[in-house]
Amino acid sequence: xxFLDTLLGRTKPVQPxxxxxxxxxxxxxxxxxxLGFKPTGYGAVCYRKAEGGAFAQxxxxxxxxxxxxxxxxxxxxKDKYGYTWLLVHREPEQISDLVTDVHAVNSSLQDNGxxxxxxxxLLSFEDPQGRRLGLVYLYKKGTFYPFAPQGEPHxxxxxxxxxxxxxxxxxxxxxxxxxxFPVWGAPGL
Length: 189
What we know:
CATH class: Alpha Beta
Largest sheet: 6 strands, antiparallel
Order of helices and strands: HHEHEEHEEEH
């Protein structure tokens, strides 16, 4: 980045680091110990579907990779905004395997040139009172944020800020709260 870019306020886009997803099991342990939230076993990757056979083939390969021999079933759905969600479900105590699954989805799309179509990855948690919480990874920013829905259009902002404080040492968190977009209707949440 040159002097003129700095002077004009241009910034270099952040490159996603999908390996940050592997820090989620540590954050899950922190969430359980500090706030009582446990993994539900659901993880989802959200992307915009591209036209053409190449994308369809990558999508089919990803499903086959995850389901593999005796692997978890993959569910594909479309939300009201036209985004595709690929949902994976494992036993709640298999958070490391779930993270590996969603990492494989993201990596496969990225490695085949479809990284720009990725929107986010979500891993779901629940506390003993039945409150839901999603840890959302923003692909284009390379950061996480908590999302605590209370029924559309309400969310628990206090809980989200509390989670931010608790897991800030475990995960790279999105500093700009305006980018903490609600993901209403996300599968698994």
